[in-house]
Amino acid sequence: MRIFSGVVLAAVLFCGMAMGQRPRRGPAQPTDVAGAFNLPAVTFHGVLKEMSAKEIVLDPGEGQPVTIYRNHKTRFLQGGHPLDAKKIAVGSTLTVDVAKNPDGSLQAVNVMIAP
């Protein structure tokens, strides 16, 4: 009976140790969708229809307008130089580098005024 108990105990301990181990994962593979803190995933071109403190509405010229969210990390540029977002007029032609948020919404990374 002692031998049987020892074998059962050893089997339980062995199974517990084997289940606690996880397989090794290789290095992360790049994806076509980057997060808001990585490089832009998509670039949109269009005319500015509306801009608020949290959103940019862009008309790409074909189809529906696109709503892109912005935050304090969104950079506004003209000719490669920083620009105050308040100086961008409705009707301006913009190029917007966008990253996809985990919830699927679009986050503006760089907003550039076309010359």
List the helices and strands and how they pair.
Blueprint: H1 2-20, E1 42-51, E2 55-59, E3 66-69, E4 75-78, E5 81-82, E6 93-100, E7 106-113
Parallel strand pairs: 4-7
Antiparallel strand pairs: 1-2, 1-6, 2-3, 4-5, 6-7
Explain what this protein looks like in three dimensions.
By secondary structure, this protein is α+β, with helices and mostly antiparallel strands. The chain has one helix and seven strands. It has one helix at residues 2-20; strands at residues 42-51, 55-59, 66-69, 75-78, 81-82, 93-100, 106-113. The chain starts with a helix and ends with a strand.
Point out poorly predicted stretches.
Answer: 26-36
Total E-strand runs: 7
Terminal CA distance reads 88 Å
Question: Sheet bearing the most strands, described?
Answer: 7 strands, mixed
Give the topology string: H per helix, E per strand: HEEEEEEE
Query: What helical percentage do the residues reach?
Result: 10-25%
- Judged by helices, strands and strand pairing, the structural class is alpha+beta
Name the overall outline. globular
Strand order of the largest sheet: 3-2-1-6-7-4-5
Number of helices: 1
Per DSSP, what share of the residues sits in E-state strands of 2 or more residues?
A: 35-45%
Calculate the mean pLDDT score and round it: 78
CA-atom Rg in angstroms: 26 Å
